[in-house]
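Q: Entry one of two.
A:
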Amino acid sequence: MYRYMRSVKKNKFSRHGVLKSAKAALNDINQKQSMHTRSPFGLFALLPREMRFRIFGFTPLSDLGQLSLTSRLLTDEVVNYIHSKDALPAIVPNIQFRSEQESSELFINAKTEYCWNHFKDLGWEDDEKFKAYLAIKGASCLDDRIRQVLRSPPGSQPWYERYIRVFCREIFLDKASDHTERGFWLCKILKPWPLVFQARLIYILYGPVNDENGTVAWNVLQSCPTYFGVEDAELMDLADALKILHVYCDSKDWNEDDFISVFEELTGTPSDWCLENIAKLLKLCGESVCFEVLGNKAMNGRVHELSYLGYHLGQVLGQDDMMYGKGNGIQCFSNTMRQVLAVMPSSKDQAALTSSLFNVWEENILSLGEGLQEDLDVTTPEEQEQ
């Protein structure tokens, strides 16, 4: 009896010991799982790297990209996986070649290999681009430099202006793959600032520069070196930027009123441009931008300004006809002026613009004749005979 009771007690304690050890092991496993769950690797921490790479191999690339955003350690792990041999079957799938034998004058009995259905469109979303822009802008203190330049008179901070121009164009604008992407970057650079500062910033980014040191040339467009304005190369970058803003920018970020306001501020930066240069800028911007600007002036009753600008626009377009022999410059001018007259609110305003435009044309023709007469009066009789 004693032996029996002793064996029962022993079995009882042994059973309790097994249960106690099992509970301890289970608690240990739970603690380890909770610890791994709280770690940056999550449950992947329970697995060796080889096993993680095997799991990555069965994971779609889109899901793998989402997984890499969860923590820095997982980002590094996914990058290590991509650079390993295990990732080759998933990242670079086996290309199936298809041979075709074709007869031609140049290639007879030649086999051409084709890659079939192995192309993928690359790119990134607008919100991803905007996050990248904010990160780069914050790391480079770009806003502080722009703020310092815009609060100072034009040309007083030439090297900061040059820094902003080179930085924005080399990092964002000139690296864009198409006009839509360039318009996105340009809108993000301009939009945080008031309209008057946006115009100055466009001039800093795309305005003419000094040949000696590459700084922004602020006083080039206030004067007119020739009868037809500055050379086209001085205004080509500005015209391309304005066309991108007018055509390719999102309507949520940029509308027609913003464009007109920036154009008006731009042609008055740092002081009013001569009309020949404004006309040349409109010519380089194309018919759409030209009609937008002239039509806005017509609807607001700025007939006097519109008539003089229309005259110089006709001269600039006529110069192209004379130099290149295209013959469509004056036709383009006539079509634009017809469209401008069509948007005017009344026939009285249309008649006033037409009359003013002819008066300006007559005035300039007469002044041209007077200038020629003065040149003839200065010459000597011997020079006239020659």
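Q: Entry two of two.
A:
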Amino acid sequence: MALKKRLMYNEAMDQVDGYVDLGTEDSMGRCNKVSGHALVFTIQFLKKKFKQPIAHYFVEGTIETEKLAVLIKNIVRTIHAARFNVVSTVCDQGPTNIGAMNLLKKFDGLTSEDNYFFVDKRKVHIIFDVPHLFKSIRNNFFQAGVMKYKGKEAKWSHLKEAEEKKRNFLNFPKITQTVVNPTYKTKMRVKFAAAHQKDVLPRKRENVSEKSNHQESWNYYLKH
């Protein structure tokens, strides 16, 4: 979460707030760098509709992978001490998050193929946030222009064909210029990232790929 950089004197604590602060008394704690972001941890129940932020830290821009791994373990231990069971962690696929997850697995002698780690011999699964997975798929597809999976191939150019034909006679409500030519801001929106994977496309794709011989590939891609 981005914050406006600012230093303020906290009279109650007799300290200046606004610096990087990871909440510990050791070398991971406060430093003389001005904070620009907040790192927030939230707990969410599986069987009840309940979500609550439980910890926040002030960082400069991002946080070092090693420090994030330590914080994750400390927070999981704290939740366990409160008699809750942590089933999984959920995060996006940012380099720091992936690095921390890999480091936690390495601590336990696990491989990159494993999707869990241990905290005090209790298994914690690793789940990547689904909305961000949509964006990651779209970004990789957009940059490469082609997606291959199990011998099948889909091309980004087919989306552009769909958008162009839509202007004349087809009904592609989700395939717009914003989808096929995303800007920096629209790349952050999940609804645009998921648009090309909606079931509206299989119903009409034969009109686009009848000449490009990729109908079967699109069919396979959209099902998987």
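A: Comment on entry two: DSSP finds eight helices and nine strands in the chain. Helices lie at 65-81, 95-107, 130-144, 156-166, 177-180, 190-195, 200-209, 215-223.
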